[in-house]
Amino acid sequence: MIILFSTISVLISVILNVFAQVLLKKSVNGIALDYTLLGLFSFLFKLGGVFSFWLGILLLFFALGTWLIALKNLPLSIVYPFTAISIIFVALASSRHLEETINPVGILGLVLIISGVLVLFTSFYGKL
């Protein structure tokens, strides 16, 4: 039961992280950045007034909480590779919601990540 709960915690952490990354990217896209010290402070000050930025930070906080639950109960060598799943979903979400493109080499990379996660998943959960 603990392993199931911890596995669900990992997946929730991944999902929250994906939403957070998309929100943070949307937040910074709308603010100009002048690459000077004053420009950096101005950028950060403006970012502080963006709702999606704070929502993204909040989601990261909850993602960390669920991640820590998983780390408590599962081996790090099994849990950490699951973060690669977030790479897949961030790529898909950014393609859909941020109008970014995934080129054929990127698709191949995503397929390799999926393959690697499946191998690790079956090697650990197949023994239970």
Write the layout of secondary structure elements.
Blueprint: H1 2-29, H2 37-47, H3 51-73, H4 76-79, H5 83-97, H6 104-125
Helix pairs in contact: 1-3, 1-5, 5-6
Can you give me a brief rundown of this structure?
The protein is mostly helical and 128 residues long. It has six helices and no strands.
- Give the SSE string: HHHHHH
Oligomer: single chain
Structural class by SSE content: mainly alpha
Mean model confidence by pLDDT: 89
Q: In whole angstroms, how far apart are the ends?
A: 12 Å
Q: How much of the polypeptide forms β-strand, as a percent range?
A: under 5%
**Helix coverage percent of residues?**
over 70%
Basic shape? globular
Number of helices: 6
**Strand tally, please?**
0
- Low-pLDDT sequence parts: none
- Summarize the main sheet: none
Which value, in Å, is the CA radius of gyration?
17 Å
